[in-house]
Amino acid sequence: MDLKELYRDVILDHNRPPRNFGRLESAGAGGDVLHADGHNPLCGDRLSVYVRMNGERVEDIRFEGSGCAISTASASLMTEAVKGKERAAVARLFDRVHTLLTRHDAPADATLGKLAALGGVREFPARVKCATLSWHTLNAALERGAATVSTE
Amino acid sequence: MAADVSAIAARSAYDAARVRRDFPILATQVNGHPLVYLDSAASSQRPLPVLRAVDDYERHSHANVHRGVHALSQAATSAFEGARERVRRFLNARSTREIVFVRGTTEAINLVAQAYARPRLGPGDEILISALEHHANIVPWQMVCQQTGCTLKVAPINRRGELLYEEFAALLGPRTRLVAIAHVSNALGTVLPVKRIVEAAHAHGAVVLVDGAQAVPHSRVDVRALDADFYAFSGHKMYAPTGIGVLYGREELLAAMPPWQGGGEMILTVSFEATTYNELPWKFEAGTPNISGAVGLAAAMDSLESLGIEAVAAHESRLLELGTAELARLPGITLVGTAAAKAAVLSFTLAGVHAHDLGTILDTQGIAVRTGHHCAMPVMTFFGIPATARASFGCYNTEEDVARLVAGLTRAREVFGRWT
C-alpha cells in the first residue's frame, strides 16, 4: 500500500486548512439554512454541514467539526465541488464519489476534478467511512433538513 | 521507585527474544514488514502453551461439563474445574466458590450491576466511579441508575491523568453504596491506588468492584491482600483466548445475590412450581460455559507465572521508560497520561496528524497501535482531544519495537510534511 496514494498533496492541502470551514447562520436573505450532523462512532469523527439553498441551487455551504485528514479533506473538497450546483447535480456527484471510494473496478472519471484525489482511499478499507461521512451528512441536510447521520 | 536487587536480577534474566518464539503470530509480515505488535492493551497474543492446551482439550477431552457420567464429560469437568482452581491460586482467593467464569470483564461488571446493585440500590443511594473508567465500567452503572433511581458520582483526575484522591475521598459518604474503579486505566496506563481506595470505601460501608482488565497481565493481584469485594478481568488481555473472563466475588456477597441469568447449570432442581438454584459459583454460570477458554486461561496463567509476572512487569516498565524518553525527543509528540505510577502504555498525539491517519501510516509499516477514544470518551473529553494513538507493551515486546515505532512516527511527519 502506497501512502502517497492515500495522502496525495490535494488531500493534505485541503486538510490544513480546510475550505469553507465554519457555520452558516439562518438569518439573512436567501432563506433558511439546512443543517445536519454526522458522526462516525467507530473513530469519534464528528462534523456538521450547513447548506443555504436558493431554490434548487446550493448557494452556500460550510462545514465544521473534527476528524482525520481524510474526513476533513473530503468535506473540504465536497464544499468546493457542490457550491453552485443544482440539487440533482449534487445527487449525481454523490453517486460518482461513492463509486470512486468503494469500487475497485471503477473506471477513471475525468469529470471528478480534484475529487479524484480521494481515489486512493479505496485501497484502505478501514478509511472509506472517513471519506464518506461528509457526503452522507450533506445528503441528510438536503433531504431532511436537520438530523444526525451515522456511518454505522 | 528504588531499584531493588530482585528487580534488577529479573531484568537481566529476562529474554524477550526467547519469549517471542512462543508467540507464532509475531512472525507475521504485515504490509511487507515484520509485525510490531503494540496493541496488547486491546488484546494480547497467545503463546504456544495456550494454543496447545486449547487444542489438546478440543482433541481429547471435550464434552459438556457437569452433565454426564461418561469419560469425556468427566474429563471436561475436571479440566474446567481444574482451571477454576488455577484461577483461585492466581488471585489467592479463599475458595473456588468465589471464582465465576464469565465472557470477560464487561460481563463481570454487568453481573455485579444487575445481581448485586440493582436489587439493593434505590433513590438517594450513590455509585462512585472515576473519570478514568472504560465505558464498560460506566454504562452498566448508568443502567442501574436508570433502573433504581440511584445516582452516579464521578471522581475527577488531574492533567497527568491521575485520580485526585482527596476529591475521591470527599465524594465518599453514607450514601455511597458501591465504588467501581479501574485498577489500571486502559486509555492512559495510570495505576490507581486501589488498596487505599478499598480501605476508604470500606470505612464508609461501601462495596468495591475493581476493573482489573489492564492490571492482571502486568502485576501480581492478590484479592485477599487488596480486600476488594469484586475483581473483574478478561482472559484475552493476559495471553488467553477471547470469550473467557473471571468475576471474583467475596463468598458472602455472591451467596446473598440472586442469579442473573436462568437456564441449565445454574439450577439444582426445576419443576413448574419452584426451582432451586445451584451452589456457588455455578449459580452464576447459566448454560454451557466456554470450557476450552477456561482451559486456555489456566494455561496462560501457567505461562505468565513461569515467566514471572514481576519479571514481565520489570521488562515492560523498562520499555515504557525507553519509549517515553524516545517519544519526548520527537517534535510535535504530546504524551497524554503522564502519571507517576503507570503501566506500559504510551498514549499520545502528533501535532497536525490526526490519530487515525497516524494509525494508517504506522500500519503500512507493519506497526499495530490502537487509535481512537479507547472506549474512554470522557477521558478524551477531559483532555480536549478527539482521539489518541496508543502503543501498549506486553511480555513479548522489545527495544527494537520501540525503535520501529519511533521510525514510524518520523515517517508520519514526513508524509504530512509541512503540515505538521
Kindly describe this structure.
The complex is a heterodimer of chains A (152) and B (420). Chain A is 38% helix and 20% strand. Chain A has helices spanning 3-6, 9-15, 69-82, 87-102, 128-144, and strands at 33-40, 45-54, 57-66, 148-150. Chain A has a four-stranded mixed β-sheet, covered by helices on one side. In chain A, helix 2 (9-15) crosses helix 3 (69-82), helix 3 (69-82) crosses helix 5 (128-144) and helix 4 runs antiparallel to helix 5 (128-144). Chain A is globular, with a radius of gyration of 15 Å. The mean pLDDT of chain A is 88. Chain B folds into two domains: 5-30 and 308-419, Aspartate Aminotransferase, domain 1, CATH 3.90.1150; 51-305, Type I PLP-dependent aspartate aminotransferase-like (Major domain) (Aspartate Aminotransferase, domain 2, 3-Layer(aba) Sandwich). The longest helix of chain B has 21 residues, at 71-91. Chain B starts with a helix and ends with a helix. At the A-B interface, helix 1 and helix 3 of A face helix 13 of B.
Give me a quick take on this structure.
The complex is a heterodimer of chains A (152) and B (420). Helix content of chain A is 38%, strand content 20%.
- What is the average per-residue confidence, as pLDDT of chain A, rounded to a whole number? 88
Q: Do you know the CATH architecture of chain A? A: Alpha-Beta Complex
The CATH class label of the largest domain in chain B is Alpha Beta
* CATH architecture annotation name of the largest domain in chain B: 3-Layer(aba) Sandwich
Number of structural domains of chain A: 1
- The coarse silhouette of chain A is globular
As for the CATH topology of the largest domain in chain B, it is: Aspartate Aminotransferase, domain 2
Helix share bin of chain B:
40-55%
Which class do the helix and strand fractions of chain A yield? Answer: alpha+beta
CATH level-1 class of chain A: Alpha Beta
* Helix count, DSSP H or I runs of 4 or more residues of chain A: 5
The third-level CATH topology of chain A is Sufe protein. Chain: A
Mean pLDDT of chain B: 95
The tally of beta strands of chain B, per DSSP, is 17
CATH superfamily of the largest domain in chain B: Type I PLP-dependent aspartate aminotransferase-like (Major domain)
Separation of the first and last Cα atoms of chain A: 25 Å
